[in-house]
Amino acid sequence: MIKGVNKIPIKRYGLIVALLVVLFSGVFYLYLHYHRAQNLKNSIGKLISARENSSLIDSCLLILYSADNNIHLYALTGDKEYKRKFAIQIKEVSATVKKVKSDQQYSTNLTPATLGKLISEKAAKTDNYLKLQQLTDSLIKLSIKAEKMQSVKKTTVAMPVVKITSSTIHIDTIKLPAKAPERKKFFGRIVAAFSGKQKDQKPADAMIIKRDTQIKTVEQVRTEYIHLRPKPTEDHIRLFNANANLKNSEREILRINNNLISEIIKSLKQYKIAEQNYARESKVELADQVSDVFNEYGYLSKLTIAALFILMVVVLYNIWKLYHNGRYLVYHSEKAEEYAVAKSSFMASMSHEIRTPLNSVLGFSEQLSMTRLDDEQTEQINAIRSSSQMLLEVVNEILDFSKYETGKINFESQPFMPYQALEDVLNTVSIQAAKKGIKLKMNLQFDKNTCFTGDVLRLKQVVMNLLVNAIKFSTNGTVLLHARLMTQTDGQAALKVRVKDNGIGIKKQDLPAIFDEFVQVSDAQKVTHRKGTGLGLAICKKIIELQGGSIRVISELGKGSVFSFELPFLPANKNDIVVETPVSKEDLARAVKNKHVLLADDNQLNVLLASTILKKWSITCHKAYNGQEALALFNANNYDLVLTDILMPVMGGLELTANIRKNKNMLRAETPIIALTANVLKEDRDNYMRSGVNDIVLKPFAELNLIEKIAGVLKTKEVPFINFLITESDLMV
C-alpha cells in the first residue's frame, strides 16, 4: 500500500460536502425570498403609478374647467373658436383618462372606460344643446324680420288728445361691492367645472333711492294714429314651442351635467383617497420590506462570500493534494507495473529453476520404475514420483495464477466435443475416487455429437479441479458430475456444469472468500493431510470469468457442496475437429531407430537423462554443454535432429538455432530443431517458434512424450526432403 495516499481524506471531502450544502442552502434561501423582492418591485411600481394617477387626475380637472368655460363662451358669443377649443379639450380629457392605471385594490367602481363613456356622453349632450341654441336664435331672428315686414300693413286710428301730462321719474341705485366667492376644494372645482357655473361674483344688495321730478305738462289738441297689433302667427307659435323645448333641453343638460360632475367628483375623490391611503401604507410597508430585504441580503452575502472563500481554499488545497497524490499514484503505478513484470519474471525464473531439477527427478524415477525393483524400492520410487508431481502442480498453479493476474493468459479457440471432454476428465479421476471408495456418477443431458469452439484444455482444468476437490474433501458417498446446455439469444450456447458431493461442506461465513487466492477452509484441513496452495478455486474463477462465464457455490456444513459454473461457447462443426491418431510404440520405434541426434544442454543431469532415453530407443547422439560446442559439432557432422536447451552459457539455444538456419547448405539449414526448455510462458514459446524452432518439449518431460515429439518432427522432415529429391532428379533429366 502506498504511504501517504493509502487513506481516503474523509475530513476534506466532508468539509467540501458541508460547504456545498451551505452554498446550496443559501441559493435555495435566496430563491425562496426572491418572491419578496418581486413584491417589493411591484409595490414600488404601484406607488409610482399612484403618483402618476394623481397627476393625471389633476390635469383632467384643469382641462374640464377650461372646456366648460369655452362652451359657455361659445353659447354666449357664437364664436366657433371656443367650440374648437372645447372639442380639443374633451379629446384631451378622454386621452388622459385612458392613461389612468386601474388597480383592483381601489374601492371605486369607476374605471377609465366608464369615465371615458361619461365624457363622451357629456360631449354629445353639449353638442345637442348648442344645436338647439342655434336653432332658437335663428327662429327669433326670423320672427323679428317678419314683424318688420308686417308693420307697413298695419291700420292706424286717429284719436284726439285733449291734454298731455309729462312726468319724469329718476331712480338712483347705489350698489354695494360684491362679495368674493369662497375658495372651493379640489373636487369642488371639478363639480363647478362640469356644472357650468363660472366663478362669478355674487351681486351685491342694491339700495334703490327714488327721486320724483315734475318736469312739464303741455296741453294740446292733436290727432294720433295708433298701430293695432297683428294676430299671433304660426312663427310665434313655433318660437314659443322652441323656447320651451330649449328650456327643457337646457334643464336636462344641466341635470345630466350635474349628475355627471357629481359622479365623476365622487369617484375621483374615492380614487384619490384610495390611492393616497395605498401610497401611505405602501410607503410604510415598502420601507420595512426594503430594510428587511437589504439586511437579509447583506447578511447572506457575507456568509456566501465567506463560504465561497473557504470553499475556494479547500478546493485549491484538494487540487494540490490530488496533484500530489496523482504524482504518487503515477510513480507507484509505474513501480507496480515494474513489480508485476519482475514478479512475472521471477515466477518464470522460479518455474524454470524448479522444473529443471524436477526433470531429472521425475525422469530418472520413471526410468527406475521400468527396471526390476522389489516392493520396497517400488514404493520408494512411487513416493519420489508422487512428491515430485505434487511439487510440479504447486509450481504450475502459482505460475498459472501469475499469468491470470497479469492478463498474460491466452485461450485457444479450437473445435471440440464437450461430452467427450467431460467423460475423459471423469475417467482420469476415477482411479483416485476408487481408492477412497467414492462413487462417481455422470449425468450429461446433451447429445454426444455436440461440438463447440473454445479452449478444451481450460475446460478440463476447471472440471478436473472441482472433481479432485470433491473427492479430496469427501470420505465416502457419491460425487455427481451434471451438465446440460442452455441456448442464448446471441447465437451462443452456455454449458452449465455442476459438481455435487456429500463431503464435509463449507461454513456459511467462509463462502464469500472461497474463491479468493491463497484461501483455505480450516475445516477442510482436518479431512485431508495434504495442504495445498489455496489457488485452485481462484484459478477456476479466473478461467471462467475471463471467458465471460460465472461460477458459484452452494454449501452447508456437514451436508456437502455444489459447485456450478456457466461457460459460453460458439457452436462448431464436428467435421472440423482434428482427430489425433494414437501411434503405437512399435511405430515410434521404427520412426526413430538409428537416428543421429545432437544434444545440447548445460545441465549434466538433463543430458544424462536425455541420452539414456535416446539410447533405449536406438538413437545415437553427440553431447554438447553450450551452444558454441553444439555449433562446432553441427558444422563437423550430419545430424537428423538437434535437441537444445534455451538457456546455456557462451551461446544460447536461440542463437544456435539462428546459426543453423543460416547454414549455406540448404539441407543442413533445414535440420529439425526441438527446444528443451522449462519456460512455460506462451509468449516465450511463441518467440522460440518464430526463431526457427520446429517444436518444444517442456521440462519435466516423460520418456514417451520426448519420443513422440522426435518422431513427429522427423516425419514432417521426410516430406520436403522427398520433394527436394524429385525436384533434383527432374533437373538432371
Automatic annotation (TrEMBL):
Modified residues (4-aspartylphosphate): D645
Domain of life: Bacteria
All residue ranges annotated as the Response regulatory domain in the record: 596-714
CDD domains tied to this protein: HATPase_EvgS-ArcB-TorS-like (cd16922), HisKA (cd00082), REC_hyHK_CKI1_RcsC-like (cd17546)
Domain Histidine kinase: 349-571
Single GO molecular function: phosphorelay sensor kinase activity
E.C. number(s) listed in UniProt: 2.7.13.3
Keywords for the protein's UniProt record, in alphabetical order: Kinase, Membrane, Phosphoprotein, Transferase, Transmembrane, Transmembrane helix, Two-component regulatory system
Pfam families membership: HATPase_c, HisKA, Response_reg
Reactions catalysed according to its record: ATP + protein L-histidine = ADP + protein N-phospho-L-histidine
Enzyme class: transferase
Membrane-spanning residues: 12-32
Gene3D superfamilies: 1.10.287.130, 3.40.50.2300, Histidine kinase-like ATPase, C-terminal domain (3.30.565.10)
Keyword Transferase recorded: yes
Magnesium as UniProt keyword: no
Protein name: histidine kinase
Organism whose genome encodes this protein: Mucilaginibacter pineti
